Amino acid sequence: GGLVMPKIKWIGLIKEEKMKDYQVGELSKNAKKMNMPTTSKEMMIKALPFIIPALVILFLSVYFKSGEFFLLRLYIIIGVLLGFLALIIHELLHAIVYPKNANVYIGIAKPITFVALASYPLKKEKFILMCLLPYILGIIPLILFWIMPITDMKIHSILFGLSAMGLGSPYPDLFNVYQVLKQTPKNCKIQFYKDDTYYIE
After folding, report:
1. Above 60 in pLDDT, residue 2?
2. What is the pTM of this model?
């Protein structure tokens, strides 16, 4: 019965080096450390190629919709700002995949990175779902952008900004999924622990 939700706690503004303090669960003795970036700065840089598919999709969406760029800059910015506010929903979408006995801490790492921090072993498929679920924040506005007739430029521009933010912001999560697929065996669990990512066979 009902939605099985983890214990989600809002931690507010934290320093990046404090992030690892919230990722301390029980780590299995058999856990093997994955080869991953340890700081979010290194992560953001290493994962950058993973933003390319989102940019291509957005560019082609506008191009095929009209053959030219017809969007209104101001309203794109409004869409991006709304997308920025939706980052809190992005983190909640990560969080809800965890089971009810997990703790997930949601906050903002300075200067402005929204984070969902948890240390709990998830089955590989569930971990991938947890990483990719926030993409729906980009997919839904993009579908609306595709199917709506071009009568209202403002709405189209806002939808474009929203989908740009929704498809662009999870690129480090996509990088995580790629690394998990590349580095881990089939039936394993994946767990964040402090600054690192582990897999447990």
Report:
1. no
2. 0.90
